[in-house]
Amino acid sequence: MVFSSLVFMFAYFAVTLLIYYITPRKFRNIFLFIANLFFYGWGEPKLVLLMVFNIAFNYIGGFLVDKYRSDQKKKKLFLIITCALDIGILAVFKYTGMITDTLNVLPFLNIPDLQISLPIGISFYTFQTMSYVIDVYRNDAPESKSFVNFGTYVALFPQLIAGPIVRYRDVAYQLDRRRETLDRFTKGVKLFIIGLGKKVLIANQMGALTSAMFSNPDENGVLGTWIGILGYTFQIYFDFSGYSDMACGLGNMFGFEFLKNFDYPYISTSITDFWRRWHISLSTWFKEYVYIPLGGNRRGVGRQIINLLIVWGLTGLWHGASYNFIFWGLYYGGLLILEKFVLKKYLDRLPSFAQHIYTMFIVLIGWGLFYFTNVNELFSFLGDLFNFGNGLFSENSLNLTLSYLPMLIVAGIASTPIGARAYARIADRKYAWVPETLFCAAVLVISTSCLVKQSYNPFLYFRF
């Protein structure tokens, strides 16, 4: 269980922000650390102990790596122990069920089905703590001298639940010397409201379309099936990028600057371009902490291909304990390899609109792999995408498409930089703040109204 959106916005966050700003500056990190743990433990108090344990052993791991910096063997040993513990805890809580189900395929095994609750956000904060110890080992980040500061970094509630993945080296200076300003606070409020609108006004509507369309997936017809997965394509983008915007906006209000996590991925002209724009913090993490240490592209083409497949298999597995996520990761890994070594020279000759159609065709199928966790349903869906024997539309799928067509158009436009570019043309004008303020106020009021009416609808990435 997590806080409802309304309780969070108008009670917890408002009170937290008020206390934060009346607290003397030297005690603000202490207050944030306590507030973070309270936020995380509201629904699952026992899991706070797991987080505190994670913070403690990674803090100690960073301390020992730094202490024995001149002793290569000890330094490496403490790095390995710390990272192994991180990965081990993540594996137990996230992958035990998948491992036991796989082993139980063997006829002579009957391992009990262990029901282990998945701690919310464990994949995100585990990667953050691992990156800290690795960066201290590489001398890319300073050792944290304060347990409270390190704990504040790991458990910072704006981005704790679903990212972006923030590296310690990017916020180390801010933890000690950030300065809250009116401009940054105002920027944060605007960004938070935009993210809220993405989630409530677009993602939730697209989620309703997807759920309705796939309630009977075999009866939609070819175009109905494509519309269903298009709805999910918009849902997952506005859901996750909306949360990232809200997290960055909340961080701004507390004086932090987090790196951008999305850069209009649906305008991409290749799969390589798509992954430069989608979930940037995760792609960067795997590149810096897995792909490059494996050798990257420095050991020949064969090794590079193996490295890419390993990285993308792990990327898929990171998203969930289900084989469809592994298929999804390897699907993109294989396509990226194909683009790099075969297709790139041909794609570059195509007009940009053709490159875009190619990319979105692949992305839509990819989200199908991501959506259907049941393998049988997944293969049935893939067949329905091209089975013209089912017709173009069923009566139900046609009615749903027509009902949601205005929102599909809005989502399509909002997933491009058209709005941002239009605003940039007037941003420097004297009274540009007036329409901007009115727009943000309208989004906030309408979003709040929708939240009052809607049932609980969590962010998709909470489960990762």
Explain this structure.
With 464 residues, the chain is mostly helical. The protein has 2 domains: 5-178, no CATH class; 184-463, no CATH class. The chain is built from 19 helices and no strands. The protein is globular.
Number of separate domains: 2
The fraction of residues in strands falls at: under 5%
Oligomer: single chain
CA distance, first residue to last residue:
15 Å
Radius of gyration: 23 Å
- Share of helical residues: over 70%
Largest sheet: none
Task: Provide key terms for this protein.
mainly alpha; 2 domains; 19 helices
Short description:
The chain is 72% helix and 0% strand.
Layout of SSEs?
Layout: H1 5-22, H2 28-41, H3 45-67, H4 72-103, H5 122-138, H6 147-155, H7 157-160, H8 168-177, H9 182-213, H10 221-253, H11 271-277, H12 280-291, H13 301-319, H14 323-347, H15 352-371, H16 375-384, H17 395-414, H18 418-424, H19 433-453
